[in-house]
Amino acid sequence: MPILNKDMTLCISLAGRPSNIGTRFHNYLYDELGLNFAYKAFTTRDLEGAIRGVRALGIRGCSVSMPFKEAVIPLVDELTASARAIDSVNTIVNDDGQLAAYNTDYEAVATLIGQHALDPAASVLVRGSGGMAKAVVAAFRDAGFGQLTVLARNEDAGRALADKYGYRWVREDPRPGAEIIVNVTPLGMDGPEAGVLAFPLSHVEAAGTVFDVVASPAQTPLVRAAQAAGKPVISGAEVIALQAARQFELYTGVSITADQVERAAAFSRAG
Fold first, then answer.
1. Residue 1 pLDDT greater than 70, yes or no
2. Sequence-separated (6 or more) residues with CB below 8 Å from residue 57
3. 266, exposed or middle or buried, with CB in 10 Å at 0-12, 13-18, 19+?
4. Within 13 Å of residue 242, how many CA atoms lie on the same side as its CB?
5. How far is 266 from 263, CA to CA, in rounded Å?
6. Is 164 a catalytic residue?
7. Which of 6, 69, 134, 164 is catalytic?
């Protein structure tokens, strides 16, 4: 990376549990491409103050993670189509003090559904009801999936998510049998829930594809269980690489190749 200087453009992330993944991904590419940018991860207890800082200090880009993806909506100037469609934000771009919000999580999940050739006739069970769950459920809906169940302990959030996209909500684990199971909760994530399996083994064994959006660690208990059962896996590492690549292009205006994304993603996971 260039030595810190007065002309350097700053991008940041705001998350309840900051990680080095995005920081390493973006800074790796800044260095490789010789861009005078720097990226730093933060958390905050004052989201409104943090967004005022983005605007006031001319911070070019701001990645937004749990639990801020919906709370940030009133604080920006524009919701672009991807964020407006699911009422959830994961990316803010600052153009001369005007803050435009995007959702590159949705774009990434939609891309992965296509890349993995998932069958729209398959039944889907999604655990979770937060901002990322909206991106996942909306992407499946827009890809033509008709049989999807939202599994969430929080009745208000779970029912609202299911109703928004025309699906079914349940509070307790249904009988195994969903052909695609998707974890969109912190279960298995580094931290207090690192060792927790997001679905019972009976669900893993009955599934045709297992999808875990948790990116850190890359090998979550659910991913390991799916691999042990010989199931195709879509990992959070794939999601975060694709969404980060889109963020990178929004922040810098520079398009990157699939090879560059793969190298940056591998570097981000190594730290």
1. no
2. 10
3. middle
4. 19
5. 5
6. no
7. 69
**Residue 175 tokens, joined:** 């009988």
Instruction: Name beta bridge partners: 99.
Output: 94
Topology annotation, domain 9-103+238-270? Rossmann fold (3.40.50)
What residue ranges do the domains of the chain occupy? 9-103+238-270, 117-231
How far is residue 111's CA from residue 108's CA, in Å, rounded to a whole number? 5
Q: Which fold has domain 117-231?
A: Rossmann fold (3.40.50)
pLDDT in tens, 40-55: 999 999 999 999 999 9
105-124 pLDDT, tens per residue? 899 999 999 999 999 999 99
If we measure between CA atoms, which residue out of 252, 259, 254, 188 comes closest to residue 226?
188
Q: DSSP of 123-158, one letter per residue?
A: EEEEE--SHHHHHHHHHHHHTT--EEEEE-S-HHHH
Residue-level pLDDT at 139 = 95
Give the pairing of strands 98-102 and 91-95: antiparallel
What burial letters (b/e) apply to 18-31, b meaning 16+ CB within 10 Å? Answer: bbebbbbbbbbbbe
